[in-house]
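QA checklist item 7 of 12: single-chain prediction sanity check.
[x] sequence parsed
[x] length recorded as 216
[x] structure emitted
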Amino acid sequence: MFKQAPVIQSRLADDVYEQILSAIVNGDIAPGERLIQEKIASQINISRTPVREALLRLEQEGILEISGRKGFSIREISEDEVRQVYAVREAIEGYAARQVAEQKDPEQLAAIKRAVDAELEEDITDVQVDFRVNRAIHRTIVEQTGNPMLLDMFDRIWGRSVSLCLFAATRSDGTPIEPIEHKALFTALSTADPDTAQKAMIDHIRDGLERNLKGA
């Protein structure tokens, strides 16, 4: 019944998606600014179809909302939603930290250390890089629990573009997370008891919340 879409078309849509996402994260697209598919297609010299696919995907994920005829704009996020997102993170990642601290598995800890060390090699003054590196560290911690449902919940709260848009919108002061914060978190996971490790993760997340709200 259905014909397989050309691979090149799919790749175009993915490329447009990544370009728009990058522009949102880096603040190149301002809140309230309308994104018109015809205009974007003209700017990057491609047909409207992959542009529309990218915009609809971003709308489905919660980053964009329909604005006028054939237009989209960045969805505004309330402070209440910011707090709700971080509360869910506390539950998911706090539990993960506790599990990792209970296991103290050398391979698991080594994987987390590699993610933390990788932060030192990146230019975290770039908002998009900062987001990617931060997410990689936290995802690695959750991944070590071996619980696919927990990892899926993590991806829903981080991987959904709501969190990406949230990150861009609330990092207006441009303050990145210092690598020393993640080093301290790793120390808690690798040496502390489960209660202390869980508290360290929750405190880390709450510090991020307050930093983000202060910069909003």
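[x] summary fact logged: The beta strands are 35-36, 64-66, 71-74.
[ ] second reviewer sign-off
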